[in-house]
Design goal:
This protein is mainly β and 457 residues long. The chain has 3 helices and 29 strands.
């Protein structure tokens, strides 16, 4: 009996010692660094994979966490935090925050947003998009906090990488450089090798010729604003559109692209830019951050939407919409079904009206505008306003004021997109005829490798 007890105690001690090493930081500590709010920042450790664990207590039971049952962990209140990431090969950087000011309101777990953000740089010094908020944070003792930052972009094939810390501006973008340190990449580093095609690459679909003509990365854009002297890195993809051997810029628009690498790295474009005549391009898509040059190729899936000369089955015209009086709004609730989706023109407001579409409300008065809802997700469709005329046959200028995802007042699932179209109503107009297009998008794919941009560009 005593022999069995001794063996059990010995195994527990060995397990405890193993647990201590298991929960020690995987990277030597670095810091501390002083931040603008008076707090101190230091590196706690780095974890890899999908299931991340970091100890923030110093009791013996905290070190025993890996060998304890769930019931015992709860009983002893082990001071260990966990984080599960969507990416199975994620990297999480853990920081200690010492002397962190308390939040003015309960906010995000009762802890205010940290006054810093981070990014990743490769061996060439090119940098990722900024990680502006931590994925995890937990108060330890007093005003001390443990933060976990998941890296969204990093050179997955590299043996090591540089972590850069910046003081964060009010919009969570970089404000000033704080420090830089190096970590090892202990995650998976062997991935398939895709083969890139040389540019330009042309793909033809339904008579539309899409040419991927330009692909650059590492463009440095310097922020020399009053308190901001930092560099942001961007990448750009340029395309030319041809139809019937003529430029098709007036009929089609390159609106979005998703990029991925064999290693699992992914990028999404944000916005689009017209490029008439510049380098022979039709449209340019910008991406935040760097496309790592260690990747042999990137796959781009490009979305192209029609903006003129729509087929009749993609058009919806609403006739005789009354023009609201100044300071008034009219609920319309006019609906149609296109491509299996319900589209609704649900409101029009006159000039100087308080605006509230159930998702957002303005402070003060807004100009006349139309409010339209369409379903989400809508990966292959696009809602456009095509034409607006008043009862005297005059063209009514219109614009686009963005879209806001909405739950539609039902639960927490995003179901619809609310879009607002400002209009300039001429004097004397009594009614409007409004034409919308709900059009199917075209998708093409390319496999290419970017070149490093010349900074003079």
């Amino acid at each position: 009996m005593r022999k069995r007890l001794a063996i059990a105690v010995g195994m527990l001690l060995l397990g405890g010692i193993g647990a201590m090493f298991w929960l020690l930081p995987r990277t030597p500590r670095a810091g501390p660094w002083k931040l603008a709010d008076g707090s101190e920042l230091s590196l706690a450790g780095v974890t890899y994979g999908k299931h991340h664990t970091m100890r923030y207590g110093d009791r013996f039971v905290d070190y025993l966490y890996p060998v304890l049952t769930k019931a015992l962990r709860n009983k002893f209140g082990c001071k260990v935090t966990t984080l599960d990431t969507t990416n199975a090969n994620a990297v999480v950087i853990w920081f200690w925050g010492k002397g962190v000011p308390l939040a003015a309101t309960s906010g995000y777990w009762g802890i205010q947003e940290p006054p810093y953000c981070i990014s990743v740089a490769d061996a060439f010094g090119m940098e990722s998009d900024v990680v502006d908020r931590p994925a995890s944070k937990i108060a330890m003792r007093g005003t001390n906090v443990l933060y976990g930052w998941e890296l969204k972009q990093f050179p997955r094939r590299s043996r090591e990488m540089n972590i850069r810390v910046y003081g964060a501006a009010f919009n969570r973008d970089k404000q000033q450089f704080v420090t830089q340190f190096k970590i090892l990449n202990r995650g998976q580093r062997k991935f398939p090798m895709w083969k890139a095609e040389p540019l330009p690459i042309t793909v033809t679909t339904n008579g539309l010729e899409v040419t991927f003509a330009r692909f650059t990365t590492g463009t440095e854009e310097y922020m020399f604003l009053p308190e901001r002297k930092v560099t942001n890195y961007f990448s750009y993809a340029g395309f030319t559109l041809m139809e019937n051997h003529q430029l098709a810029d007036a009929d089609w628009r390159v609106v979005f692209a998703s990029a991925s690498a064999a290693s699992g790295e992914a990028r999404d474009s944000y916005g689009w830019m017209e490029s008439p005549g510049y380098d022979g391009l039709s449209y340019i898509l910008p991406f935040k951050g760097t496309f790592w040059m260690e990747e042999p190729a990137w796959k781009l899936r490009v979305k192209i939407s029609r903006i003129a000369h729509f087929p009749q089955d993609e058009l919806w015209t609403v006739m005789g919409v009354a023009v609201p009086a100044r300071g008034k709004a009219i609920d319309l609730n006019l609906k149609t079904n296109m491509h299996g989706s319900e589209i609704e023109l649900f409101a029009i407001n006159g000039p100087m009206t308080n605006f509230n579409d159930g998702v957002r409300a303005t402070i003060g008065k807004v100009p006349p505008q139309l409010s339209v809802r369409s379903p989400l997700p809508a990966l292959d469709t696009q809602l456009e306003i095509v034409d607006v005329k008043d009862n005297l046959g005059r063209n009514v200028p219109f614009g686009w004021d963005g879209g806001i995802p909405s739950t539609g007042g039902r639960g927490a699932t995003i179901r619809e997109l609310i879009q607002v179209f400002p209009i300039t109503i001429p004097d004397g107009a009594e009614t409007l005829d409004i034409t919308f297009a709900y059009t199917k998008s075209v998708f093409v794919e390319f496999v290419a490798k970017p070149t490093v941009a010349k900074q003079s560009q």
